[in-house]
Request: fold
Amino acid sequence: GSHLRTTAKMGGKKDAAGHSPAVGAFLKWARDKKGVKKFQRELNLAQMLGMRPNSMARGTTTARRERGKGVLVRLENVLPLEVAEGAAEIVRAMPLERWSLLQGDGDRSKPSPDGIASAHRFGAIVSSEEEEGVSEIMGLLAGLLPPAEKRHAAFHLGRFAKGDFLDKQDDAAYAAVADANEEGGIVKCSRDIAVYLVLSKDHGKGGVLRDLYHETQVVEDDIALSFNSLVAFHVPREYQITKVVSENPLLCAFGWFLQEGELYDLSAQTAQAEEEEEEEDGDKKG
Reply:
């Protein structure tokens, strides 16, 4: 993690390891395993989210899921302030070349290289081995739900620079997870719960998470992704992230808790999404 020591504009005196006070505070807090477990237990995300709504289960008669039952959890000031400042500094200091650009035009007739079917453009860091502090951020999120049989986690860093966005989609996807106990060493999972932890300040008016769960949009469906806030919900749930218009990027740690097996029927969902798109196109032409 040498880049943490060389990046300019980091405030305060450095400690013996060359960290700013905020980064030092984050690393100390995140490496206190007992303290982090206590924090995760007291946050109790599982209780806030509640049971997975039945309407999403495989084999339900209507592909179009019932609306209004799913809980979207939004929390402000999730981490102690200095800890959040340190995590933010770690993500902000990531060299630009470390971010992989994910982009697609939303054409569902051809496979999407990064698994996101809708139009999108943003940066992501998928693996966390290289930089000091990144695996601690991922581990912090991965422990927000207690360990459970057949549960896995996949968390990444996200960077929405000026002009970046994520169009309407619902996060539903299968994922292959390495599992030494399985035949072939891989187990098929479904994304079960999505989590975003926001680690940037002042990314302007854009970069809003627009919850598209309700038939009729209301003002409350536009969720400002403010610094040190957390958003979590059951997958599938339609949402989008509006275009960032500021020079300051929207930075976050995001990802999913995965459940082994197929939680939903993706082929039925894809057909439904295409049908809805055709309806929308028809409305536009009409």
